[in-house]
Design a protein that fits this description.
Number of strands: 7
Structural class: alpha+beta
Oligomer: single chain
């Protein structure tokens, strides 16, 4: 063991002992001022008892709050956290304290009768309650501070997303391609042209309405995707196919325009022809859902900054604390995204 490490350990335990002695004096004076000042009393024994009790209680409460009870968060599940603390205090600490006091003073039943033992138990119980509140207050403050930091980061990423959504709305290629299709339909099939205009307006209305949202129901996103697919199918016909399991895709939330960005990414990077049709699948995989397409890379692809995929990965990491998984091979490209369910942590993000 190095001298520096040994010095650190000595300092750590010296602080604990000093803290125990200081609070032993304080608790001795508060709980038993007569014991503390009366020369006839065994003052050293009283001081050592309260000091030892404080050290043991401090370490026990610290171990429970900081080691055993860290999975449940005060901000996310305050009732569950409170219930666990009460359980520990009532059913673990109080029985242990009863045994501890009995063992310490069992050898002197004449001096320490039932009333004295009751007071000693009550004093330790009060000390434990104060220490438990202290550690939980620190933990609550840390959780609250972390929550504020996450919310600030979400707002930052949300601004980036709004910029991306705005770029998608005014994407000249998207506008040009669809307006070009529309101009042809007007002369060739006026009824289909009317449907095209209706779906085209649905797509842009959704982009405008949902750009302020962090999460939307998957059902809402799929309604938008239906309109978007209609436009895509007009351009590519039977050369592009969509397999969407709507029966399974229900009951969770997604970041808006996620599916559109992933479909657009597949179309942008792959050949779409009668010889090489593109198939895009959207389905459930355990606690995730995925967007998958077969791979047939285009010989030439326009400039791609990769902002779309990166934006999706960053937003999902913040919204769900889980990673977006990208799986790529020579045959398939798949993006798996975590299903986000409503809970207290996310309720403030769903308007």
């Amino acid at each position: 063991m190095s001298q520096k490490r040994a010095s650190g350990i000595f300092k750590k335990y010296a602080i604990k002992l000093l803290r125990g002695l200081v609070f032993g004096v304080v608790t001795s004076f508060l709980y038993c001022p007569v014991c503390f000042f009366d020369p006839a009393q065994d003052n050293l024994r009283v001081l050592l008892y309260y000091s030892a009790s404080f050290i043991l209680i401090w370490e026990l409460m610290s171990f429970f709050v900081n080691k055993l009870n860290v999975k449940v968060n005060w901000v996310d599940e305050p009732r569950k956290k409170l219930f666990q603390n009460l359980q520990f205090y009532l059913f673990i600490f109080l029985p242990l304290n009863l045994i501890y006091v009995k063992l310490v003073f069992i050898g002197d039943p004449e001096v320490f009768n039932f009333w004295h033992l009751f007071l000693l138990n009550r004093h330790n119980a009060l000390t434990a309650l104060i220490i438990l509140l202290f550690f939980n207050s620190l933990q609550f403050y840390k959780a609250l501070h972390k929550s504020f930091e996450v919310n600030r980061e979400i707002e930052k990423k949300h601004i980036e997303y709004q910029l991306l959504a705005l770029k998608n709305q005014t994407n000249p290629h998207f506008l040009f391609n669809n307006l070009n299709v529309l101009s042809q339909l007007i002369f060739e099939n006026t009824e289909l042209a009317e449907q095209f205009i209706g779906r085209f307006s649905e797509v842009y209305r959704y982009l405008l309405e949902q750009k302020e949202e962090n999460l939307v129901p998957i059902e809402t996103e799929l309604e938008f995707i239906d309109a978007y697919i209609f436009l895509v199918k007009i351009r590519h016909g039977e050369n592009i196919n969509f397999l969407i399991n709507k029966n399974s895709l229900a009951g969770f939330y997604v970041a808006p325009i996620t599916l559109q960005l992933l479909i657009e990414n597949a179309i942008k990077h792959n050949e779409i022809s009668t010889k090489h049709p593109l198939t895009i699948s959207i389905d459930i995989n355990g606690d995730s859902f995925f967007v998958q397409n077969n791979v047939r890379p285009k010989s030439m692809v326009g400039y791609s900054s990769g902002v779309g995929i990166d934006n999706i990965m960053n937003r999902y990491k913040l919204l769900s604390q889980q990673d977006v998984i990208v799986e790529e091979s020579n045959e398939l490209f798949r993006v798996l995204l975590p299903k986000i369910h409503t809970n207290k942590k996310l309720s403030g993000l769903i308007n």
